[in-house]
Amino acid sequence: MSDDPAVASADVTVLSVETPGAGTFARWELTYIQGYSTTVVAYRAADGVPVSLIGVLGSPAGFGWTSLEVWQDGGIVRCGITWRPGGAGYEAAGGISGTISPPSRVLVNPGRVTSTEPLLAGHVAVWAARQIPAAPLASADAYGIAANSDLRSWDREAAHLRLARLCSEDRVALEVTGAPVDEGDVTRMGWQQPGTRLELYRQVEATDGGRLRESGFGLAYRPRFDISNQPVGLVIDASLRELGAPFAPDEDSDIVNDVTVRRPGGSSARAVTEGATEFVPDSYDVATSTDLVLADHAGWRLWLASVDEPRYQATINLHTPEGAALIEDWLALRDGDRWQIHNPPPQHPPGVVDQLLDGYTETWKGRRWWRVQLVGTPAGPWDVAEVDGAQVMAADGSTLDDGIDDTNMTLLLASTDDNGVWGTDPADFPLDVRIGGEKATASAVTGSSSPQTVTLSARGLNGVQRAWAAGTEVDVWLDAIVAL
Fold first, then answer.
1. Which residues of the chain have pLDDT under 50?
2. How many CB atoms lie within 10 A of CB 236?
3. What is the 3-state secondary structure (H, E, C) of the chain?
4. Which pLDDT belongs to residue 113?
């Protein structure tokens, strides 16, 4: 039941229960009065005369449930009402003489009273026993959080637990991999919306940001939490001839810089790339438990959609001697897993091609021809720094104060006044750094003011090693900022 009877346009008969059998009474009505009182009235079968059974001051406010209970006690008919939450209960004093018969029809708000707020009843159930076998409104879930039950439409249910419950109700096999361990990594859903099975499954996926796929004769789900900061599952080394053709960036992929998320029955939030002058919009519906997290959802989706990195398509020929070395890792790879290409062809940007598996096409021709074409999206946005993790962040805007040649093992590092200098704590080293497009390892940074001296222990770790001019950007290499 919901919400405030005072905002209804008239008194509301919440339930009208018809019992026109051989009993004394033909109809029972539970009515909420605008002045915050409640009545239960029975109407005699013979002449339709109303008999007031319960009249109490008060009525429920907020989302919960109400039970109307009528039972035979010898030659006396007794009735009562119970409200949850709150646990208030009222019973007709003394009862009345007569008999009852089973209900034949139950009507909700038969007077069609309107309201300025969400009004009254959703789910109706009829029980043969007086002690209604109702579940509690809420109970602690696996994370110790009081998530609401079906009596409150599963509000605040963890996303992956909702999917598991829905699949169980539908008798669909489901495998959940990488479920969050801590409550802070859980996505909480709002009230379960009407929809088909697939619509409800997809709503979980869209709200959590995970990945849902077919698996055998059932489904498999990977929560958003499990996609972040994952190890590499497949490494393709082009220098070993493990990379086939075609291999190219996806030229049709659009970069979105304007994201809006909407919550059914709630508010919306928008995130836009700072400094954008032309907007490429996109929007999402997310069934979160509260409006307070919508800005975070919009920002996260903007982060994923606006990354300015190529989306790659790559090919591996597993029937060749070089490709055969990849078979075991390929067979273990799943949707959303991380794959990389090392030493890519020179027409591509230097460095490692780092992608998540978005899809693939697998082709066999006879027993001796086996090709896989992978489709990816950048893995970098999913590398997320963690509180108290091992990540190290560079001071933005750092550059070479003076040029270096392709053999220098020291460099002068200039930092901006606004962002400050790099840390010199020995515990942070060795640290992989990026000098332009070259990966190198720094063994130490010394000096407390700009420019600082950086001592290198290795250069050209990604196959790129050359001279760099003053003003070249220096940053922490991507792998070093992630706490794995």
1. 1-2, 482-484
2. 26
3. CCCCHHHECCCEEEEEEECCCCCCEEEEEEEEECCCEEEEEEEECCCCCEEEEEEEECCCCCCCEEEEEEEEECCEEEEEEEEECCCCEEECCCCEECCCCCCCEEEECCCCCCECCCCCCCCCCCCCCCCCCCCCCEEECCCCCEEECHHHCCCCCEHHHHHHHHHHHHCCCEEECCCCCCHHHCCEECCCCCCCHHHHHHHHHHHHCCEEEEECCEEEEECHHHHCCCCEEEEEEHHHCCCCCCCEECCCCCCCCEEEEECCCCCEEEEECCCCCCCCEEEEECCECCHHHHHHHHHHHHHHHCCCCCCEEEEEECCCCCHHHHHHHHHHCCCCCEEEEECCCCCCCCCCEEEEEEEEEEEECCCCCEEEEEEEEECHHHCCCCCCCCCCCCCCCCEECCCECCCCCEEEEECCCCCCCCCCCHHHCCEEEEECCEEEEEEEEECCCCCEEEEEEECCCCCCCCCECCCCEEEECHHHHCCC
4. 84
Residue with tokens 């600082």: 452
Angle at 481 between CA 260 and CA 410, to 5 degrees: 135
Tokens of 252: 């049709």
> pLDDT tens, 332-378?
999 999 999 998 888 887 778 899 999 999 999 887 889 999 999 99
Given this model, what pLDDT does residue 2 score? 42
CB-based contact 264:241 (threshold 8 Å): no
Beta bridge partners, 435, equal: 438, 474
Share of the chain above pLDDT 90, in %: 41
Closest CA to 99 of 126, 71, 80: 71
Helices 197-208 & 159-170, crossing angle to 10 degrees?
160
In angstroms, the Cα distances linking 102 to 27, 80, 98, 122 are 11, 16, 14, 22
Q: Which amino acid is at 74?
A: G
For residue 246, say if its preceding peptide bond is cis, omega within 30 degrees of 0. yes
- Whose structure tokens read 């991380």? 338
Residue 416: what pLDDT?
Answer: 87
